[in-house]
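Hey all, sorry for the wall of text incoming. These are the two entities for the joint prediction.
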Amino acid sequence: MIPAAFPILLLLNVPLAPAGLVLMNAGFARTRAVSHLLYASLAAIAIASFAFFAIGFAWQGAPGIPGHVISIGGSRWDWIGSGPFFFRGFQSEQADATLAAVLGLFSVGLCAMIPVFAGAERWRLGPTLVASALTGGFVFPVFAHAVWGGGWLAQLGREFHLGRGFIDAGGSACVHSTGALIALSVVWVLGPRRGKYNASGLPSATPGHNAAFILAGCFFAFEGWLALNCAGALLFNGVPPSGLALVAVNSFLAAIGGIISSSFITRVRFGKPDASLSANGWIAGLVAVSAGCAFLKPPEAMLVGLISGTLVVFSVELLELHLKIDDPCGAISVHGAGGIWGVVAAGLFLGPDQLTAQLIGLATLLGLVFPVSYGLNLLVNRFLPYRVSQESERQGVDLAELGAGAYPEFMIHRDDFTLR
Amino acid sequence: MRIAGFFLMLSGWIIAVSALILLQPGPAQVAFACCSVAIQAAGFASVVRSHVVTRGRAS
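and here's what came out:
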């Protein structure tokens, strides 16, 4: 059992990760949608966390808390948690389970925010909240149980002799890939922003409104990520406190690998480094290393970051230009491409048995989580249309949905042009 | 095409889980796991393609 005082200090820094991401993605939005994005992110955190508190943690469970088990081929398959709802099993003397609940509570908001970023400038608030509740109460906890709750993916090592079982200390799969797959479903349901593609299908450039937000967000997110990866390694991978220096070094090296490769590629391709893509490269490095941060060697972590930064640049272009996926903040590329690469990379560097475990986890994400989240989003859209009206989109979702913009002094009023 | 793509993705997961139950750890199991993800990639490509085509018709 881990002494509770040390990891709780780590956990208290975890909310800096969503704070940094929100700041960053607010910078990617246009001026007429900034308040909406910030408010929707906060609301998504609140609703997803409430759903997790009410139902989700009971289904996620924690290592050491027995779940519902079925037996196939003589092996135990712990497929969903069996705890009481509304955190009624939350007891401070069970330190590991309590800390896992806190980490889950902070992480579920992060997962629910990713679709908000991808659907920026056109996703109505009501459906955003319903989708966040489904994420926090069902989609996230069921997969997180398999990985973080001591479920069947975590037990692949013990039951099937596959390395350490599926490893995902900081949530490359649980948080980021899950969030990105939900985001992709949302974006497909929503469609692109009006005016994004012309009649011949070519995208128009819609730059973010504040590069300072984008870059400053990276610093906050990094601090939160260090805490998230260290806490995850401690709670779910059995890393002793003395092993956390490696987790921190790996996280940092992957982040700098991500920004170096994305800056280099954009410099070579466009003549100057692209600040927003480089910032995305920094985050993608952190996302990718989250899976294997406790076990990778530092040069391997650096390579993971370099490749994730490269992937992000090409993924953003592929999605926008060729696949007609309008993702204003690049969230699907950062969290999806980075997360999936991180899951696979942990297996590539840790041997064939570990690779099998990681691929089975990835297959579960693509074969179960993605179709279920796509189906749920289609269903919700049928009863609560996702997209704002054409007039609201023209006016800007800040005014249409919240009644006030983020920068009221930038608005041009008729009075400004009268003689004084 | 979209529904077929999702079925392929589900099939990939079933193949991966079947390999886990039926095969011992080793090269054959790794190969099956890789194939299952490749099948899912094909399914994912079908889903993406169906959305691109639908979007093209809409515009």
